[in-house]
From TrEMBL:
This is Haloacid dehalogenase superfamily, subfamily IA, variant 3 with third motif having DD or ED/haloacid dehalogenase superfamily, subfamily IA, variant 1 with third motif having Dx(3-4)D or Dx(3-4)E. It comes from the Bacteria. NCBIfam families: HAD-SF-IA-v1, HAD-SF-IA-v3. It holds the Pfam family Hydrolase. PANTHER family: HAD FAMILY PHOSPHATASE, HYDROLASE, PUTATIVE (AFU_ORTHOLOGUE AFUA_1G12880)-RELATED.
Length: 115
């Protein structure tokens, strides 16, 4: 996933849609100053650090994101291409995936979420 884009590969959009079709809730967490414009309707929650006053990799933002989905961090999977952000999510109790390629991320999600 690429926030700036917002998504650079349609396969990622398909994975998010598949997760939602299975009843999983989704969130976009960004260290941006403000909410991205024109997001696809894929997320139950959008958390923007500039709006909430805390940023990745602070575990508090991951806890806030989980809470926005009415769940706990230990029931969340977090994906990011920045390793220290993935470590922050893990410190908060989330399962982290360090995104390197679309294929590897999709493979990990398929296993973790049975997609």
């Amino acid at each position: 996933m690429d926030y700036a884009g917002v998504f650079t590969d349609p396969a990622i959009v398909d994975v998010v849609r598949s997760a939602r079709a299975k009843g999983l809730r989704t969130a976009l967490l960004s260290n941006a100053d403000r909410r991205p414009y024109g997001l696809p309707d894929l997320f139950d929650a959008v958390i923007v650090s500039g709006e909430v006053g805390v940023a990745k990799p602070n575990p508090a933002i991951f806890e806030l994101t989980a809470k926005s989905l009415n769940t706990t961090p230990d029931r969340c999977v977090f994906i990011d291409d920045v390793a220290r952000y993935v470590r922050g999510a893990a410190e908060a109790g989330m399962t982290g995936i360090h995104h390197r390629t679309v294929e590897s991320t999709m493979d990990e999600l398929a296993v973790l979420l049975d997609l």
